[in-house]
Every structure is written in structure tokens, then in C-alpha cells.
Amino acid sequence: MANITYIEASGQATTLNLPDGWSLMQGATANGVDGILGECGGSCACATCHCYVDEARLTDLAPASDNELAMLENVAAERRPGSRLACQIKATAALDGLIIHLPEMQE
Amino acid sequence: MTAHIVIIGAGQAGVQTAEALRAGGFAGAITLLGDEPHGPYHRPPLSKAWLAGDIGAEQLVMRAPEALARKNIALRTHTPVSAIDRAARQVKLADGSTLSYSGLVLATGAAPRSLPLPGGAAQGVLALRSRMDASAMAERMAMCIEKQLSVVVIGGGFIGLEVAATARKKGLRVTVLEAAPRLLGRVLAPLLSDWYAALHGSQGVHLKLGAQITALETDRQGAVSGVRLADGTLLAAGLVVVGIGVSANDQLARDAGLECERGIVVDACGRTSDPVIMAAGDCTARRLPDGSLLRLESVQNATEQGKSVAAALLGQERPFTATPWFWSDQYDKKLQMAGLSSGADQWAVRGDMDSGSFSVYHLRAGQLLAVDSVNASRDHLQARKLLDAGVSPTPAQVGDAAFDLGTLLLK
């Protein structure tokens, strides 16, 4: 389980308690957090679940795969050092308290 | 009458249309009608994570009801439509009630083709399209595991091969039967078809190409027990998966007199032959400038047409002209396709096929038509740019790993 805080581009913040194994994309879409589309359903194929992870916490996450790094080159909003795809980040206890910011656009 | 846009179909195209209407400033009423009991969900994981039992229903949700409600999109699940009255601009629901519309969007999807053979409708003969289909298939797979029965997949297309991969992951014995001489013959280059045949073989799938099926055998209870081939062979099976393609759900449109041919015929903006009726997604067939019809069955087509249709309803031109793309996950291999490969006369490979990370470039008379990438997302994304720009590398440039194809885009 992990408490994850999503901050939308509007500033709207939502904290969700995600079970282990849920992706951060799944948490957002299942709970009505706007700002994450996840068009491909979590296959790392569309780059519409772009998020900015608090850089200080990046090392708590499993590193991005080559596939994810490639798809991150195709995000609609600015790519930053903390850019990740939310469908590729799975909730674990190590992520508890993580804050992610959502970009203004996903496509 | 106040503005009311009715969208028939609450899948990818329907949801995209509704949200794009709001994003585009539409202030009237939007009703999103779905015939399934649950709200919008992601279909791509059905043949993989869902079938494997790795995720639950909540993880499949595409849009939570509250997210749609916030956008003032009225979702009505379990609400099949029985007819469209174009003269009265009304939709008749299966319960006998009617809804008036000022604009109508058909996002009715497609349905799996059934097997036109004896036994083709027997218990245990299943296709995969909806969440319920996938759940029924997962249950049948569990029964096969318990009773040590095999799975036979009819059709070596994307759905069939993804299901085969998931079944192998569960430890089931799997045979894939394909009528054509190679897998995915309509989309992949022959050398990539061979590569996928080898991949499935290495994962323990028994593959029969050029297979001719004469009947499905059933037991006394009417459940499928095996697949009979033309050469007399009987393949025992507790589950037969039918993945032989889909047909557009265009019956409502046909009954209403809209132009249909292999789907609801639309222009590049998703307009049908009725000016206040649009269509988007798997139910459509797009009329191209040369008069031919293009049918695409993909998430990208659903989202792009959804956006085009919303724009058209708002009086704007937003044709969908981007390069088509698609993907398929099988085992740990991600196939990403860009462009349309039909008509290719030459193929060139970038990367080492034995390494499991490479791309196949389809060319016709020197012009790049399509690129299929396996575990090579950078090639795929670059291919979309090359195709969008109409830029073609030579086969020698494709084969030269030291040559950056991206430089072709700078000229």
C-alpha cells in the first residue's frame, strides 16, 4: 500500500491509497483524477499518462525501461528530469507519500 | 430544441468524443450510451493482464463515473439502442423509450466473426472482445488447467497470438491454427511472420500453418471437445479460441439508411452521409480521396476519429490524417507498427533480428510505407515522424545502424 498524491495542472490535489501492484495510472483513472488519460490501457504504447515525479524520490522507483524512456521522448508536455509514465510505476510501500504532478496536456 | 449530442457506444471512441466535445467548449447536453453493465474500460489489457488474472476490474477502468459526471457527461450503462429515426432525430432505446438528439455519434465498435462451421457455437468456443468475453475465457482456461485439457486457437492474428501467449504463461498446452501460410500475413513482412512463428514455437506453442478446419467436435453435453482438420487429425481441446477477425457493428446505421460498406462510411472528419450523424472507431470505414475504403481497428483510430467527430459537431474541420499506429504485446516482446504495409515490394531490417530488438521497414518503389518494430520504441516513434513527413530512407540507410535516420528529417 502507498499513499500517492496527484497534483493536477490546476493545482487540485488528490491523495489515494493504492494497493501494491496498482500502477499510478490505474489509480488515477479508477478514482476520477483528471489529467491522466492512459489511452493504451497501460501498455507503455501511447505516452498519455505522463507525470512529473518529485525528483528527490526518483530513486525510490524502479528505473524506467528502455521502452518507457523512448516513449517519454514523445510526451505532449515538456519533458523534465522527473518525467515518467504513470502506467509504468507500480505502487509499493517504498512509494508511500510520493507526490506526482500532472502536466497540462497529454496529447 | 436545445443542443443534445447522443453518443451510442461507451468505448474508447465514444468517451473520446464526449470529452473532446467538452474540451472544445460544447455546452449542451451529452448522453453516452453503453450496452454493457459497466462503465468505460480499457480493452487492450483484456487479452493479457486481465485474462492472466493479474489485474482486477477497478484497474481496467478507463474513466470513473465521477470524472464523467464532473464534465457533465451523462453515462447510461446497460442501455442498448434498437433504432435511429433520422427524420425525427430520435434514438429508440431497447426499453422502448426515445431520446431526441441535435447531433448523433455512432461509436458502436465491432464484433468478432463467428466460426461458420459445425460446432462453431458450442460451449467452450469463445471469442474475445468484451470484458465479459475475457472473463468467460479466463474461467474456461481455469477449467482446462484443472482437467488438463488443451487450448486450440483458431486464427494466427493479433488477438489469437496474444491469447496464446497468455495461455502459455498459465502453463496451458496451446495449438494455434492459421489458414494462411504464415502468421499475421496481412500486416507483417514474411520475415517477421517467420520470426513470430519461431517466437511462439520457442515458448512451446504448437503452430499449424495452412490449417484447414472441417468441424468442431462436441461431447454429449454439447461442449467443445476438439477441432477436426481436413486431413482427419483431431486436436482435443477444452477451449477453442476464435480469432478470425471482426465485423463493424453497423446494423443500426444500415437500418437507418446510412451509407455502409464494411462499416459505416465516413470522411476524414468522421461525417456520415447524414450531416448531423458522425461515426468513430472500429465501426467505421473511411472513404479515402481515391475512393477506396480504409478500415482501421485500433485505439489510435478510435481516439483520433473521436476528436475529429467532436470538432465536426462543433463546425470545425479536423481531419484524421496522421500515420496509423498499432501495437501488440506477446510474451516480453512489444511489436509497434507505424504506417500501412499493404503493397510493399521490398523490406529492409534495422538491428539484429536474433537480438530480439529490431525493425522491419516496408518500401514500395523506394517509398517508405510502414515500419514494424520489435522492442525498438525509438525506431517506432522515429518511423511515425518519417511517415508523417513522407521521407523515405534507402534500404542501405536502414541497414546501416551507424546512420541516424533522424538526419533525413532535418533536410
Describe what you observe in this structure.
Chain A has 107 residues and is of the alpha+beta class. Chain A has a single domain (2-101), classed as Roll (Ubiquitin-like (UB roll)). Helix content of chain A is 13%, strand content 21%. Chain A contains two helices and five strands; from the N terminus they run E-E-H-E-H-E-E. Chain A has helices at 24-30, 66-72; strands at residues 2-7, 13-18, 50-53, 83-85, 98-101. Chain A has a five-stranded mixed beta sheet with strand order 2-1-5-3-4. The longest helix of chain A is centred in the N-terminal third of the chain and has 7 residues, at 24-30. With 411 residues, chain B is α/β, with parallel strands linked by helices. Chain B folds into three domains: 4-110 and 248-313, FAD/NAD(P)-binding domain; 125-242, 3-Layer(bba) Sandwich (FAD/NAD(P)-binding domain); 332-410, FAD/NAD-linked reductase, C-terminal dimerisation domain (Enolase-like, domain 1, 2-Layer Sandwich), CATH 3.30.390. Chain B contains ten helices and 26 strands. Chain B has a five-stranded parallel beta sheet with strand order 3-2-1-7-19. Chain B is globular, with a radius of gyration of 22 Å. Chain B starts with a strand and ends in a 12-residue tail after the last helix. The model of chain B has no long low-confidence stretch (mean pLDDT 97). The interface between A and B is medium-sized, with 25 and 30 residues.
What secondary-structure arrangement, pairings included, does this model have?
The complex is a heterodimer of chains A (107) and B (411).
Chain A (H helix, E strand, L loop, with lengths): L1 E6 L5 E6 L5 H7 L19 E4 L12 H7 L10 E3 L12 E4 L6
Chain B lengths: L3 E5 L3 H12 L5 E5 L15 H4 L12 H6 L2 E4 L4 E5 L4 E4 L4 E3 L2 E4 L3 E3 L12 E2 L4 H17 L3 E4 L3 H12 L4 E5 L11 H13 L3 E4 L3 E6 L5 E6 L4 E3 L2 E4 L3 E3 L2 H5 L8 E3 L10 E3 L4 E4 L5 E2 L4 H15 L11 E6 L2 E7 L6 E7 L4 E8 L2 E8 L2 H13 L5 H5 L12
Parallel strand pairs in B: 1-2, 1-7, 2-3, 7-19, 9-16, 10-11, 10-16, 11-12, 18-20
Antiparallel strand pairs in B: 4-5, 5-6, 8-17, 13-14, 14-15, 20-21, 22-23, 23-26, 24-25, 25-26
Helix pairs in contact in B: 1-8
